[in-house]
Amino acid sequence: YIIRRGKCVAFTERDGGRRDVAVFKPGDIFGEMAVISGEPRSLSVATLTEVTLWEISSETLAELTGLDSWAGIFLRTVVSRLRKTQDALLESQAGRPGGQGASARRE
Q1: DSSP sequence for the chain
Q2: What's the start-to-end Cα distance of the chain, in Å?
Q3: pLDDT at residue 44, as a whole number
Q4: 0.90 exceeded by the pTM?
């Protein structure tokens, strides 16, 4: 998704609590790892204000970028590694004293 107007927050729910991870504003994108990799989304996103989005499907992205080529294989590998790193980071922050890791920056 590409945010045209408004703000959203990405968050995770682990161990019974919600932790905000990032705040998105106009021009920002989210959901790109799921579209590129075909794997389930790793975070949830909620609106903070009224929002207008552009949705980019995996089919459209594949047509525009050549995700079926060697470059697509390369990109999916990078996204897979990034997702593993993100998951490990979220897990390590969840175990910090005081309950949760750093929260999202609010603007």
Answers
A1: -EEEES-EEEEEEETTEEEEEEEE-TT-B-SHHHHHH-SPPSSEEEESS--EEE---HHHHHHHHTTTSHHHHHHHHHHHHHHHHHHHHHHHHHTSTTS--PPPPP-
A2: 20
A3: 92
A4: no
